[in-house]
């Protein structure tokens, strides 16, 4: 597997279990790229939905993807603090300038005070039937949801207090480099 290089711009592709594209983020700047972890950032990037609709992200975001965990974490930097949106998903693969994963419907919204809501349980149940999620996927997702909730409570990974400072600083650096190159 190739590894995205720090400073390069990649796309992020989200698929559904049946192989259909779900959503594409046009531009994400790679802040860290290893075999296991990709940390990226984007701001006002174009997002294309499966039905062709498009929209722009509203705020700067730091995105955390892992090759072993069944979730990815979007850290949205807002005026009143950092909000986190977690997609329960397959681990990522990196292929042809694109980071790819399967979105498994369940989401967790985490607020600046680390309180959280589990979202879309009904959508998960519907798609589990419709797309025939194997029982093993269901068990993996439940284990990873438990792991994620522990990370939130323990302020681990992207929920650690210094995570945002470190990666927003790196993002500002790459934005300045791109600006100077123009």
Structure write-up:
This protein has one domain: FomD barrel-like fold (Beta Barrel), CATH 2.40.380. It has a seven-stranded mixed β-barrel with strand order 1-2-3-6-7-8-10. The longest helix is centred in the C-terminal third of the chain and has 21 residues. The chain has 182 residues and is α+β, with helices and mostly antiparallel strands. The two termini are 31 Å apart. It contains three helices and eleven strands, in the order βββββββββββααα. The model has no long low-confidence stretch (mean pLDDT 96). Has nucleoside phosphatase activity towards nucleoside triphosphates and nucleoside diphosphates. Its EC number is 3.6.1.15, 3.6.1.6. It catalyses: a ribonucleoside 5'-diphosphate + H2O = a ribonucleoside 5'-phosphate + phosphate + H(+); a ribonucleoside 5'-triphosphate + H2O = a ribonucleoside 5'-diphosphate + phosphate + H(+).
Radius of gyration, in angstroms, nearest whole number: 16 Å
**Main sheet: strand order:** 1-2-3-6-7-8-10
Number of domains: 1
Give, in order, the helices and strands. Answer: EEEEEEEEEEEHHH
Q: How much strand? A: 35-45%
Q: Would you spell out the secondary-structure blueprint of this structure?
A:
Blueprint: E1 9-15, E2 21-33, E3 37-42, E4 46-49, E5 54-56, E6 61-66, E7 71-78, E8 81-89, E9 93-95, E10 98-110, E11 116-119, H1 121-130, H2 135-154, H3 161-181
């Amino acid at each position: 597997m190739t590894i995205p290089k720090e400073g390069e711009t990649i796309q992020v592709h989200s698929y559904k279990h049946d192989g259909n594209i779900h959503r594409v983020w046009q531009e994400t700047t790679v802040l860290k790229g290893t075999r296991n972890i990709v940390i990226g950032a984007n701001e006002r990037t174009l997002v294309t939905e499966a039905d062709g609709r498009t929209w722009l992200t509203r705020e700067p975001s730091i995105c955390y993807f892992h090759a072993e965990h069944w979730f990815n974490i979007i850290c949205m930097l807002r005026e009143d603090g950092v909000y986190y949106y977690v997609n329960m998903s397959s681990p990522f693969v990196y292929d042809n300038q694109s980071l790819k994963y399967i979105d498994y419907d369940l989401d967790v919204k985490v607020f600046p005070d680390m309180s959280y809501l589990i979202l879309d349980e009904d959508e998960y149940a519907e798609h589990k039937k419709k797309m025939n999620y194997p029982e093993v996927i269901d068990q993996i997702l439940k284990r990873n949801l438990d792991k994620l909730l522990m990370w939130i409570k323990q302020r681990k990974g992207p929920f650690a207090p210094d995570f945002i400072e470190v990666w927003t600083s790196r993002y500002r650096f790459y934005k300045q480099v791109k600006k100077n190159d123009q």
